[in-house]
Amino acid sequence: MFPRTTRRGALSAGLAAFACAALVATAPAVTATATAAVTESGTQVAAELLCGKYDSTRVQQGRYIVQNNVWGADTAQCIDVGGTGASFAVTTARHDKPTNGAPAAYPSVYAGCHYQNCTTGSGLPLRVDAMRSVSSSWSTSSPDQGVYNVAYDLWFDPQAGETGQNEAELMIWLKHRGSVQPVGSRVDTVRLAGATWDVWQGNPGWNVISFVRTTPTDAVANLDLTAFTRHAVERGAVGRDWYLTSVQAGFEPWQGGAGLRTHAFSVSAG
């Protein structure tokens, strides 16, 4: 969710907590500052510090991209990208946005295409009616202060191209802190992927469907993203002949955000 001044014009701040990460009109620069990280075994490995609004870096030989993505604010944010895997941590975040509007940022990791910035070997874009199994594992931790969510962001479009405006967004909120909610209104409660979810749906210029877990969790293993996609198709938010263009996982901070951390992330698409 996000008011896309670069894509559709600014949206009203009254759209309570949009549901997504901002996509910019051009591919974000892949830039970073070298730092150092220490693995659990004590081995020092190369790491990167991303502090520019749209800084990003490739990890795991380009299989994933980690992005700072401060699309909704001018306040400082830095993320430290771990030297192994697809891990990252928000080390600086001075956000202070009202909770009845859009968040400040979406620091995240993704597979697929975020405009022209594409990963390698992801199997995306993938046509919806050809999806056999798309799953993801994600492990996180979060602080006891601030206002934020911990959420997947899946994008769909009628075209398989790497550029342009995607027409549908599917968010999966694993947890949130503070009085924030997805765009639109709550339309149902469903049982999917072994958990119960409140379903929200709206259209601030593109289809948005969000699933909010009723029992919060910090981690999922082999989460069945195909099940959520099928439900979105049943509700008319996504077309069967559309394409899944990216699977993103990250945090939307409204206030604060330092201490949000992804320990591990993976996607399997086929």
Automatic annotation (TrEMBL):
GO terms for MF: cellulase activity
Keywords, ordered alphabetically: Hydrolase, Signal
Pfam families from the UniProt entry: Glyco_hydro_12
Gene3D superfamilies attached to this UniProt entry: 2.60.120.180
InterPro entries in the record: ConA-like_dom_sf (IPR013320), GH11/12 (IPR013319), GH12 (IPR002594), TAT_signal (IPR006311)
PROSITE patterns: PROKAR_LIPOPROTEIN (PS51257), TAT (PS51318)
Entry keyword Hydrolase: yes
GO BP, one annotated term: polysaccharide catabolic process
Signal peptide range in chain numbering: 1-36
Record flagged with keyword Iron: no
Similarity field: Belongs to the glycosyl hydrolase 12 (cellulase H) family.
Name of the featured protein: Glycosyl hydrolase family 12
Organism of origin: Prauserella shujinwangii
